[in-house]
Amino acid sequence: MQVLFSHEISGEERTDSLEKMLLMRIDKTKQLYYVYLQYLIEVCQYALVDAAKRANKHIQEESDVNINTTIAQISILTGIQASEHYKRLLTAQTVSSFIDQKLVKELFKKLQASVKYVKFCEIKKHAKADEVEILRYISKKIIGASQSLDEHLAEYFMGLEDDHFITLHSLQKKLKDYAEMDEHLFLKSFLLEVEDIEEIEFSKDLLSNNLNHRDELNKIIEPRLKNWDMDRVAVMDIILIQLAVTEFLFLPHIPLKVSLNEYIDISKEYSTSKSKDFINGILDKVMKVLNDEGKIQKLGRGLINN
Question: Residue 10: is its pLDDT beyond 80?
Fold first, then answer.
């Protein structure tokens, strides 16, 4: 989506470099994912640093005694840190170069002052659900809401505003899986160890099919725009509709409802306030016509909830 939008806005007609651009964006987005993950780990680990500093104070206050450091021992995080795959990733993705310890301290202090953290510390024995809840809170409300961190990372990541949402949303979704998955499988998924090839191939297929069948896609879409000309519809809306229809027709393993819901959700974040209903209406009409004409052929997983 981002690659196609940039291409449309630029007015460039050639498309031969778009796949290379796509792969570069995927690499940068993955790198940002690991940077946010490492900030999550560092913020939780800072509880140990904070406790040590308090213990070494010459004059201790009541709040400096018996400091709770259980957040640093959350099983998800200890499993990640013990992972040889993650250790290699930290080096390969040069993650440490993006970590600012002053920011880590700042983020921990915000966490420490939150009601959510106080309640977490009051729990004597944490279930998986408790761990997931506090980590999702930190990733969304502490890391995700930090303007200081955004300003710091914007120096290194172009298009941070877009990738910020994508990576943190992915991080939260994957954390939610922890209570329901085998820990070994969870770690492989969480660290993107099992998804690289599949996701890259899916992205390349989606892009190439969209570009190769653009005329066909527009012939299907344009009659469903009512009184709107293609040129008058928001560029982002057209791109999202084209991508959804590309999945309908040319990616047989993606269920229709998955495609429909995904692009409607994306429109809420990236397009106008009215786009969700507009895109939903157009895609409903397109699905009906294509189904009636027998042009939608789904296979395997794509047959689910069609």
Answer: no
Domain ranges for the chain, please list them: 2-195, 213-303
pLDDT tens digits, one per residue of 41-63: 999 999 999 888 876 765 656 55
Using H for helix, E for strand and C for coil, what is the string for the chain? CHHHHHHHHHCCCCCCCHHHHHHHHHHHHHHHHHHHHHHHHHHHHHHHHHHHHHHCCCCCCHHHCCCCCHHHHCHHHHHHHHCHHHHHHHHHCCHHHHCCHHHHHHHHHHHHCCHHHHHHHHCCCCCHHHHHHHHHHHHHHHHCCCHHHHHHHHCCCCCHHHHHHHHHHHHHHHHHCHHHCCHHHHHHHHCCCCCHHHHHHHHHHHHHHHHHCHHHHHHHHHHHCCCCCHHHCCHHHHHHHHHHHHHHHHCCCCCHHHHHHHHHHHHHHHCCCCHHHHHHHHHHHHHHHHHHCCCCCCCHHHHCCC
pLDDT digit string (tens) for 94-151? 999 999 999 999 999 999 999 999 999 988 888 888 999 999 999 999 999 999 999 9
- Per-residue pLDDT averaged across 177-205, rounded? 78
What's this model's pTM, rounded to 2 decimal places?
0.76
pLDDT of 209-248, one tens digit each?
Answer: 999 999 999 999 988 887 666 666 788 889 999 999 999 9
pLDDT over 90 percentage in the chain: 43
Contact (Cβ atoms closer than 8 angstroms) between residue 76 and residue 135: yes
- φ, ψ for residue 151 (rounded to 5)? -65, -40
Is the separation of the CB atoms in 46 and 108 below 8 Å?
yes
CATH topology of domain 213-303: N-utilizing Substance Protein B Homolog; Chain A (1.10.940)
